[in-house]
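F.,

This is the one I mentioned.
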């Protein structure tokens, strides 16, 4: 893949320090198919469904209460609409292992044992569209951006921070992604959210790739029903 050792070291250092690592111009690093992210986005939008619900806390599910206001499509719908995205998902597991973790971590990243939640398409549009503060139940997540993200930035706290509050609000970082960027995120340790959108005309869309570490594959029972139904 022609990635220099310096980039590998830099990405791993960034990942450990901030909990996320950003790879720009990602598609062509691992795929040799031609692609058009606008068409992929349209095809996924057509199979997605609107979701507006509160999960977690007393509402049930994992972690504190948070809001989902978005459109989603699960793995089956995604790969039916755009089959080559399964290849992107698999290659991204290799990429994370080989590039970010190469020779530096004994942990091995594996595909999701739960198929339904392996790949999720997320589309955010309209004032208040959001996915509130949460940790992942899986150890590592890849966010692949299909659009630029000028509204609804990814907000996140340093690894192992407490739940976001007045006390650590100054530690929150914001990332306005560009399309075709991959963000690798430490799922268990990094509190993150999609900041509620404020511009009625903006759209942001991404694919969420769930991965696990070998030996850390548990997923709370019933989570898919709570999240996707
Ligand atoms: Fe997340």
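My design for it:
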């Amino acid at each position: 893949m022609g990635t220099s050792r310096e980039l590998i070291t830099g990405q791993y250092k960034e990942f450990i320090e901030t909990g996320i690592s950003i790879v720009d111009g990602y598609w062509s690093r691992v795929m040799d198919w031609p692609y058009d992210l606008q068409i992929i986005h349209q095809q996924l939008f057509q199979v997605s469904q609107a979701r507006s619900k509160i999960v977690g806390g007393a509402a049930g599910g994992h972690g504190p209460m948070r809001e989902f206001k978005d459109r989603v499509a699960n793995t089956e719908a995604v790969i039916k609409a755009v089959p080559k995205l399964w290849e992107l998902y698999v290659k991204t597991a290799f990429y994370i292992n080989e590039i970010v973790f190469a020779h530096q971590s004994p942990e091995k990243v594996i595909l999701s044992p739960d198929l339904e939640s392996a790949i999720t398409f997320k589309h955010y549009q309209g004032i208040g569209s959001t996915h509130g503060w949460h940790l992942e139940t899986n150890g590592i997540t890849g966010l692949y951006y299909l659009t630029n993200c000028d509204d609804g930035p990814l907000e996140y706290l340093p690894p192992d921070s407490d739940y976001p509050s007045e006390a650590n609000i100054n530690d929150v970082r914001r990332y306005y992604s560009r399309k075709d960027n991959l963000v690798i995120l430490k799922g268990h340790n990094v509190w993150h959210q999609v900041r509620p959108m404020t511009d009625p005309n903006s759209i942001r869309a991404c694919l969420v790739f769930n991965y696990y570490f070998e030996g850390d594959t548990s997923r709370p029972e019933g989570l898919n029903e709570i999240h996707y139904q």
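Residues 134, 136, 192 surround fe (ii) ion (CB under 6 Å).

Talk soon.
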